[in-house]
Amino acid sequence: MDLCHVPTVREKGWYLALMAPNTKGPNYAWLDPSRLYCHPQGLQDCVADLLLPFQGDPIDLVAGIDAMGFILGAAVAAALHKGFLAIRKAGHLCVETLAEPYTDYSGREKVMEVRTDTISPGLRILLVDQWVETGGTMRAAIRLVERLGGGPPPCPAGIAAICIEDSEGGRWIRERYKCAHCVPPRLQPRFDRHQ
């Protein structure tokens, strides 16, 4: 799809066609959304769709998850006129941090960190990542925010991602938190099966 082309009718998720399928094998995510981020209208519509369920909700800060969640999270923060907090993979922050171990979508054990001087008790935080596949990465981010006291229970204020898959971890997150994602219900089974 041409990066300047905008369809006449823009239904929710039209921009999902901008994502490119994996050509490098099983150690990589099955879709790459970076071309969606290059499309001005596609990115704007994606952010608008993610924010729709949170209209009128008190959100104080947007936190994005390393690394592609930084792009989408910063765009969401800009649209809300809020600050942006980076939740990083371990070893990148030179300030005092809180760490949380997790297993990512590929089964690799990792550690995530967040600086300790940004989240104060009661702060309403919208967590953003590009994708929730197994839920391990997002659950680690949730635990970090909760450990630092962000938001009244349930905290965080919400979860937003291009796709929240219908996996055990995805269902756990949807049952406990207000969520937004961009995949229309008719396409969800295809995304869950990585087709």
TrEMBL record:
Enzyme class: transferase
Signal peptide range in chain numbering: none
Domain Phosphoribosyltransferase: 59-150
Highest taxon of the lineage: Eukaryota
Molecular function GO labels: adenine phosphoribosyltransferase activity
Known pathway: Purine metabolism; AMP biosynthesis via salvage pathway; AMP from adenine: step 1/1
GO CC term, one of those recorded: cytoplasm
Localization per record: Cytoplasm
Keywords: Cytoplasm, Glycosyltransferase, Purine salvage, Transferase
UniProt keyword rRNA-binding, yes or no: no
Family: Belongs to the purine/pyrimidine phosphoribosyltransferase family.
Subunit annotation: Homodimer.
Name this polypeptide is given: adenine phosphoribosyltransferase
Source organism of the structure: Anseranas semipalmata
Lineage, opening ranks: Eukaryota, Metazoa, Chordata, Craniata, Vertebrata
